[in-house]
Amino acid sequence: MKKNIKIAPSILSADFANLEKEISILNNSEADYIHVDVMDGHFVKNLTFGPPVIEKIRNYSTKPFDVHLMIDSVDQYLESYSKAGADIITIHPETTSNLDNAISKIKSLGKKAGISLNPDVSLDKVLPVIKTIDLVLIMSVYPGFAGQKFIPDVLEKVKILREKINKENLDVEVEIDGGINIDTAKLAKKAGANVLVAGTAVYSENKVLENIKLLKNC
What we know:
Oligomer: single chain
Distance between the termini: 21 Å
């Protein structure tokens, strides 16, 4: 199933002191989602947004919130992030004791469910549940900090995943996050990704609208 390219700017690279303004700019852009990276300082070595912050900034956005949960014991927080305003909730298989139950919980909350794989995590972690989810997020860096270098080896995962999705005619998006710029975006698109998460490349030189357009059309 061929999908149009979508851009999900990561507000991890935005100006945290002016998030209302930053989100207003994205509202008027060609962005499709707003990507929100949630880190707990345990699963990854950084701390970012909690539900109260997401709830506040959700009021400013006309775009769907693509919330990537990089947190331990994720099951107990699914409802909180759902209530805060997540439209897509993406989790890592390692952070739940029962992946099927976690996916069912996300769906029961009326949200789209995504599974994220770090560069060293096999596709075998997601293939058994591929028919029950809406999105697979392939990490092309090890999560934790913005501005890291793209890991090209993950493109093979993207290719295999895209082939399976197309062969079985599944309605599943393939998202990629980490080191995405004009050059790596072309590689990711060619491999089969249809949602590109970009932070540094979007906010470079304060040309957000232009940068999003360039990524979408490169």
